[in-house]
Amino acid sequence: MTLGRDAIRRWLTVPDASALFAEARAVRAKTKGDGVCLRGLVELSSVCDRDCLYCGMRHANPDVRRYAMRDEEIVACARLARDLRFGTVVLQAGECPALWSRARVAALVRRIKAETGQRVTLSLGERSEADTAVWREAGADRYLLRFETSDRALFAQIHPGAPRDGEHPRLAQLRRMKAQGYEIGGGMMLGLPGQTLESVVEDLLTLRALGLDMVGLGPYLAHPKTPLGKRPPSGEVPVSADFTCRCYALARLLLPDANIPATTALSTLDPARGRRMGFEAGANVFMPNLTPAAYREGYQIYPGKICVVAPEADAITALRADLAALGLRHAPDR
């Protein structure tokens, strides 16, 4: 299936996208087989210096339950990921360079690699070239940084202080990290107020232009205690599981070898079917949450987050049953 701008626009708008989903599954089967990688997500901290207009953890929100995990707790989560045969641990946090300094993160990466053998994915936001170089040297394998939208004006609207022209800061960082030897992950939010269909087409083409190793995308879920969440819905892009899955499928066709997670946001938007819809649209990764229960409710980018919590047996059993029903299985990470 040839995918240019016109074809992408058509697949985003046709009444029935079942042929698109079938093609995405066929491509996944060819490039990934029937295996789904499980990666352990650890939400290190809800402390954030930024005031992004959509995020419930924004610095100006006084109602966030702020926390920061200790290094020993983080390494313990990595050991749990190893024991559950997840293969990769994903370290994610609000943007706070003072808390997650260059030296601290490098030491954490070295410990996790030495003590567990886990692959390490970092998701710590916008950081300097020097920071990411040191972390790569320490052994970090992947970096996940959603660019959220390739539309510079829209990006500036939702990120106070971001310049409206010049190079997109997150796209620039992704390119730098690719040159540093990281496997890079990026993606966007779908349904942002003011987002146009044409900008989503451009976002999808940007995924291919970057040559991403991992694509993380999901629906925009409004948080009522944010400036953006208080605005009425607007824009051309629907916040729907179907539209999100069309973008999953298009991402699979644009980047056949990429790892594409069925995201927590999709499951939250459609608790009954979201996860399975993601796999039916070509996803091949899922990230169970390893964050300790004492902290988990503090990490609320959007409300009502539904996630698979490991190692609770019923949650993992239900996940594996979903995979089996789709002819898929938990496979070792690559």
CATH topology descriptor: TIM Barrel
Write down the Rg: 19 Å
The helix fraction, in percent, is 40-55%
* CATH superfamily caption: Aldolase class I
Order of helices and strands: HHEHEHEHEHHEEHEEHHHEHHE
CATH architecture tag = Alpha-Beta Barrel
* Quaternary structure annotation: single chain
Task: Tell me, rounded to a whole number, the average pLDDT.
Answer: 95
Structural class: alpha/beta
Which stretches of 5+ consecutive residues score pLDDT under 50?
none
The profile of the biggest β sheet is:
8 strands, parallel
Determine and state the CATH class: Alpha Beta
Number-wise, the strands total 10
Structural domain count: 1
Brief write-up:
This protein has helices spanning 5-13, 18-32, 71-83, 102-116, 129-138, 152-158, 169-180, 197-210, 241-254, 264-269, 274-280, 293-296, 313-325; strands spanning 35-45, 88-93, 119-123, 142-144, 183-186, 189-190, 214-215, 218-219, 285-286, 329-331.
Description:
- The protein has 334 residues and is of the alpha/beta class.
- It has a single domain, classed as TIM Barrel (Alpha-Beta Barrel).
- Helix content is 42%, strand content 12%.
- It contains 13 helices and ten strands.
- It has helices at residues 5-13, 18-32, 71-83, 102-116, 129-138, 152-158, 169-180, 197-210, 241-254, 264-269, 274-280, 293-296, 313-325, and strands at 35-45, 88-93, 119-123, 142-144, 183-186, 189-190, 214-215, 218-219, 285-286, 329-331.
- The strands form two sheets. Strands 1, 2, 3, 4, 5, 7, 9 and 10 form an eight-stranded parallel beta sheet that branches. A two-stranded parallel ribbon has the order 6-8.
- Helix 3 (71-83) links the parallel strand 1 (35-45) and strand 2 (88-93).
- Helix 4 (102-116) runs parallel beside helix 5.
- The radius of gyration is 19 Å and the shape is globular.
- It starts with a helix and ends with a strand.
- 46% of the residues are buried.
- The model has no long low-confidence stretch (mean pLDDT 95).
